[in-house]
Amino acid sequence: MEIIAALANSFIELFKAGAATFVSWVTGIIPLVIVLMTAVSAVIKLIGEDKVYSMAKTATKYTITRYTIVPILAVIFLANPMCYSFGRFVEEKYKPAFYDATVSFLHPVTGLFPHANGGELFVYMGIATGISNLGLPLGDLAVRYFFVGIVVILIRGVVTEKIYTMMKK
């Protein structure tokens, strides 16, 4: 009898944890994303959609900028998960690779721009604690993460683009 009661209590605790997570999203990330989307839309309207799309189209025209500059700016200025909205400036055939490059940059950017992805901060801080315990500077680690991240997102973007092109055929 006690086992059944314990299982029932554990079962309901699982749903309580899910509900708590849902409430944290409703009061935290959802309003943040809505406000960011509104702000970005307002800035685009103020500048002019034609100008913004023209500039973005130019930036995404070249492979190197499409998988470096654009994802970096998206992640730094809009943070996770709003950064993916920059994908609307990318041609359809490049969207999977753009997404891959952008999502891959969310961890390397954390050392210099912790606001970009708070969920990854615990990983970086774990590594940073080890580096600090060794007496090494954290600035060097953050800068190296950032630059290695740029190389990685370029490689991932190019490789994903090639894979997508082959699979589409």
UniProtKB/TrEMBL annotation:
Stretches of the chain forming a coiled coil according to its record: none
Keyword terms: Membrane, Transmembrane, Transmembrane helix
Keyword Membrane included in the entry's annotation: yes
UniProt GO BP: phosphoenolpyruvate-dependent sugar phosphotransferase system
GO cellular component: membrane
Name of one Pfam family that matches: EII-GUT
Superkingdom, natural source: Bacteria
Record protein name field: PTS system glucitol/sorbitol-specific IIC component
Species of origin: Pectinatus cerevisiiphilus
Organism lineage string: Bacteria, Bacillati, Bacillota, Negativicutes, Selenomonadales
